[in-house]
Amino acid sequence: MLGTLAQWMRILGYDAVFDPTLGDHQLVRLARAENRVLLTRDRELARRRGLRLLFIDSEDLDEQILQVLSDLELAPDRSFSRCPVCNQALECLDPVAAAAQVPAYVAQTQKEFRHCPTCQRVYWRGTHWQQMEQTLARLGLSETQRFERQMPDLERKENGG
Question: CA torsion sign, 97 to 105 to 118 to 10?
Fold first, then answer.
């Protein structure tokens, strides 16, 4: 099962479906019907023909994330834009509207909120966000690290390169 990997792909901003109730045949049909890449650790499933598939080599989550990004040539530049629970794109939420849905302390200390229009969860940059950002930093995928990697390109453009 790759449910945690699916959740992290969502955190990174990618549309990732995970439904543990689906059997192999149903997963293959869904992947074909929606033109998805099927991620699997199941060697038998990985032998299927006629679909886009990536066999996940490691059981280690960090290695799985890095493999998917590398093998599928994905850029982690959309982090925190999808609901990690239900996969829906997040929308900005006005702080006044958020105040009715979050603890009072959060409403007083946070200025930016996002919410999921499907499951109605509200997200803000609290301790969970900090923990996720630390994980991304450990993997070299944090917002700051992405910006720093882009800096040489920006400097070249500014200097006429």
Answer: positive
